[in-house]
Amino acid sequence: MKKMRIIVSGGGTGGHIYPAMALIKRLKERDLIEDVLYVGTEKGLESKIVKNAGIDFKTIEVQGFRRKLSLDNVKTVQLFLSSIRKSKKIVKEFKPDIVIGTGGYVCGAVVYAAHALHIPTVIHEQNSIAGVTNKFLAHFVDKVAIAFTEAADQFSEKKKIVFTGNPRAQEVVNIKPNDRLKEFNLAADKDTVMIFGGSRGAKPINQAVIETLDRFEKTDYQVLFVTGRVHYDNVIKSIDSKYLNSANISVLPYIDNMPEILPDIKLIVGRSGATSIAEITALGIPAIFVPSPYVTHDHQTKNAMSVSKVGAAKLIPEAELTSDKLFQEVNDIMSDAAVQQEMSDNSKKIGVPDAADRLIKVLTGLVNK
C-alpha cells in the first residue's frame, strides 16, 4: 500500500485535536506515512499538543464569526480569505496526497484550499451535531466521516458520508487493566467509580460530589474524584480533611494519561464530550453523563442521548443534578453486578474499536483512486 503525504488540520478544542493525533499515531504504526504536516493556529491548544508530539506544525490566522452583527466579522472574512491564500501556499509546498480536517475554524481554510487545488479531501465530524465549519466544508470535500450515526442528518451530501467512529477509540481499546490506582492511594483490586468534569473540571458536578462524600465513604466501592485544576484548591477547602485520608476516596486535580486507568474503572461520571464517549464505548465502561449545557447547539446532550438510549449510560441534566440524585444513580449501578454487565455489553455494541483503521481506509481509498 502506498505511503501517503498527508496534511491534517483541526483545532480550538481537544475534541478536534486528539482524534487527529490518534489518526496520525495509527498511520505511523501501520507505516502508511511518508510525511505528515499539521496546520493549526499559534494561539490554539493544538500548537502545544502537536509540537510536544514532535509533528511538523505550521500556522495560519483565523477567527470565528460573532453571532451578533459586529465589525469583527469583517475582520473574520478578511482573515479567512488571507488564510486560504496562505493555506494554498502551504499545500503547494508540501504536495500532500490527501488533506483531512477534524473540525474547528482553522481547518476550514486548509481543507477548502486543498479542494481548490484538486487534492483529495476528507472531514471528520466527532459529534452528533455537526460543527459550522464541517457543514460548510461538506459541500466541497470528497468524503464526510462521522462518529455518531445521528450526524448523518446534518449533511445534505448523503453519498459522501461514511461512518468511521472516532480514532481515539482504537487508541485506548488495547489498554489492559493495571495497578495505576495504587498511585492515588486506592486499592487496585476494588471496584472504582471515577467522577471527572473534564480537563477544567465542572463546578456543579464537584459541588454534588462534595455533598455526597459522607455517603461514598461508607460504600463497598471506592471513588476517584478528579476536580479539574482550576477548582482543586476550592474543593479542598470545602471538604472535611478526613476525606483526604480516606481509604475509600481519592481527590485529585487532574490525571495525566487518564486513558491508562480506564480499564480499571467500573463506572464513569462526567461530561459527554465526543472523545470521552469514544473511549468509554470502546472499552465498554458504564457511564452517568451530566452534559455541559454551555457548548454549541447543546451537542453534549445529544451525544449522551445517543449512548443512553441503548442502555449504555444514564443521563442527568445539569439542572437536575443534586447530591441525592448523583448518589442514587451511582449506587444503583455499583450495587448491582448484573446492571453493570448489561450496561457494559450495550456500551461495547456501539463502540468502534477499529475507528482509526476505518478512517484510514477512507483516506487510502481516495489516494489510491
From TrEMBL:
Transmembrane segments: none annotated. Keywords: Cell cycle, Cell division, Cell membrane, Cell shape, Cell wall biogenesis/degradation, Glycosyltransferase, Membrane, Peptidoglycan synthesis, Transferase. GO terms for biological process: carbohydrate metabolic process; cell division; cell wall organization; peptidoglycan biosynthetic process; regulation of cell shape. It is found in: Cell membrane. It catalyses: Mur2Ac(oyl-L-Ala-gamma-D-Glu-L-Lys-D-Ala-D-Ala)-di-trans,octa-cis-undecaprenyl diphosphate + UDP-N-acetyl-alpha-D-glucosamine = beta-D-GlcNAc-(1->4)-Mur2Ac(oyl-L-Ala-gamma-D-Glu-L-Lys-D-Ala-D-Ala)-di-trans,octa-cis-undecaprenyl diphosphate + UDP + H(+). Residues 192-359 form the Glycosyl transferase family 28 C-terminal domain. It holds the Pfam family Glyco_transf_28. GO terms for cellular component: plasma membrane. NCBIfam families: murG. HAMAP family: MurG. Belongs to the glycosyltransferase 28 family. MurG subfamily. This is UDP-N-acetylglucosamine--N-acetylmuramyl-(pentapeptide) pyrophosphoryl-undecaprenol N-acetylglucosamine transferase. The lineage of its organism: Bacteria, Bacillati, Bacillota, Bacilli, Lactobacillales.
